[in-house]
Structure formats: structure tokens, C-alpha cells
């Protein structure tokens, strides 16, 4: 059969057994753990015809640990905990199970009552590459697919809506939105004064690049022959935003209105000399227009603002001497004619996961 050791708290002064709490007053008093051993190992006499049943024998199982089912995990992913309760039970000959003192089960290791569960990673948002821009010029939109992926790489649910990457954003194509003008035969130029008068009459900005002259300045002198100047811009009407954009001068075709002309403010101190148009052209027609010698030009783009995940590049605009093609000081170019800043997208590859 089997037998277990047990320990009791004993009062040495009164020579009697007392409750366990008296022994707990002294830390050095550690209650011994129960031990199990076999007993009565001699074979039973065959003549008896039956075997006496002792408290613990082969037909009467030893007390054992029994557990309740695990509780639900405290987290669905990322690591949680679950628990269960453990008790010591005894089974009688009829198979009825009843709880008993824990010391009767201490001959075997007690089962754990808490364990970690669902230690796999939680689902995460995965953004696909951006689509091309929805427009071929100006400002548009681009889209991307964003999926919720679990630890096995399968499409699932459970990602937080607050951390979802945006699926739509604006994009800018650095191409002006206007129709390219067809190449037409260049007509013979009119005399400069007549040409200036005709182009000055009510020029408005259209969806095709066109020269737009501003108002003439006052005459440079109060008497005699002087000079008037004005700015001439190349402009286009952007249909998608109904706004006017400045373009480089060479984007406009056809005769450019003059930005300088002579003016007569009457005779000086009784001088009755009058200038014919031919004399005026001889005097001032050879003056090279200051704003035509220097002009703005695009010179490539800046470095991308991001190394991945989508950035922008800005155009680099420089002031050039149109004859020598050499860079010039920016003060020599007309500030109001500076072309607009253009942007383009770059580094569109998704960033590596952190």
C-alpha cells in the first residue's frame, strides 16, 4: 500500500498538539513537506481468498491535483495572461471525487495557475505604393491601398482606425495646364511704333501663353524727347484653378511687345525742333532692352526632401545672360518676371519597416 508523512505543531512546554498558527510565530519553524512511501510490500497470503483494503492501495487512487479550465486570455494579441484554480481531490472506491487538504497532494508538483497566452504580434497597417497622379498637369490626387495584416501576413481586421495611414493625398505635376500653341508661319513685323500700338490694345490673359504688357511709365523728361518703359510678361490662364501664372518669356510665341519707347514732351526753352519718327528710331531704336538681355531660366531641381515614402523637389531658378548663357546677378533680372516655383514628387518607394 502507500502511506504519507504528516507534521503537526507541538507545544514542547505542555506536551500537546496545537494549531499551526503557533508555529508560524517563529520563522525558523518550517513545516516539512509531506512525503509518500510504499508499505506492506509483503505478498498477501493466497489462502485468505480476499485482500484487506487499506486507506491507500492499488484500488484506492492517491489524492491528486485537479484544475478548472483556463480563463479567456486577457489580450487577443501581443501577449496576455490566463489563469485557473487548482485543488487537491480524492477519489473513493465508488469513484466519487471530493476535495481534501492540500498537503495530501504535495508529493507531486503543483500545476501552474497562471500562464502567458496570445504572444504573437498584433495586426498592423500595411500601405501599398501610391497610384499615379489623377491629372497630367497642375494639381490632382493620388491614392493607395492600406491593408490590415496579421502576424502570418494574412489580410484581417483588428487594426486601430486611429493609426490608419491616409489613403488619399494631393499631388502636383510640374507641367503648366495650357494647350501648346501650334507653330504658325511668322508674319513680317510691322514698323515698331505701329506694332506697339496694336499689341497694346486690350490684351487679356487666355489659356494659351501670351504676352501681357503693363502700363507705360511716365516720360523720362519733362520736355523734349525722352523714354518710356514698361514690363512685358508671358502669362497663361490655368483653367483648373482659374488663376494666372507667369511663364518664362520663351514660352510665348509671336512678336513680343516692346518694353521701351521714345516720348516727346514738347519743346524745351523755346526749342522748336521736332523729331520725325525716322529720327526717333535712329536715336532710340538701337538701345538694347535691358530686360531682354537678362532673363530667368529653370535649372533643374533641388534634392528630394525625403529619402523614402514620398517627398518633393523644387525647381532651381537662376538669372542668365541670354547672349553668353552665363549666370548673372539676380538683381539684373526683373523680379516680377521670375517664373513660378514648381514642385514634383520623388522618392516614392515605401520606407522600410522600423
Description:
This protein has helices spanning 20-23, 192-200, 277-284, 290-293, and strands spanning 2-4, 9-11, 16-18, 36-38, 64-67, 80-83, 86-91, 97-99, 114-117, 124-127, 138-143, 146-149, 168-173, 210-213, 225-229, 232-238, 243-247, 260-264, 294-301, 311-321, 343-346. It is mainly beta and 354 residues long. The protein has five domains: 2-38, no CATH class; 65-117, TSP-1 type 1 repeat, CATH 2.20.100; 124-173, TSP-1 type 1 repeat, CATH 2.20.100; 206-265, TSP-1 type 1 repeat (Single Sheet); 294-346, no CATH class. The radius of gyration is 49 Å and the shape is rod-shaped. The model is unreliable at 187-201 and 279-290 (pLDDT under 50).
Tell me the CATH architecture of the largest domain.
Single Sheet
Mean pLDDT: 78
Strand order of the largest sheet: 5-7-8
What's the number of structural domains?
Answer: 5
Protein name: ATL1 protein
Subcellular location: Secreted
Pfam family, one: TSP1_ADAMTS
GO cellular component, one term: extracellular matrix
Summarize it.
The chain has 354 residues and is mostly beta strands. It contains 4 helices and 21 strands.
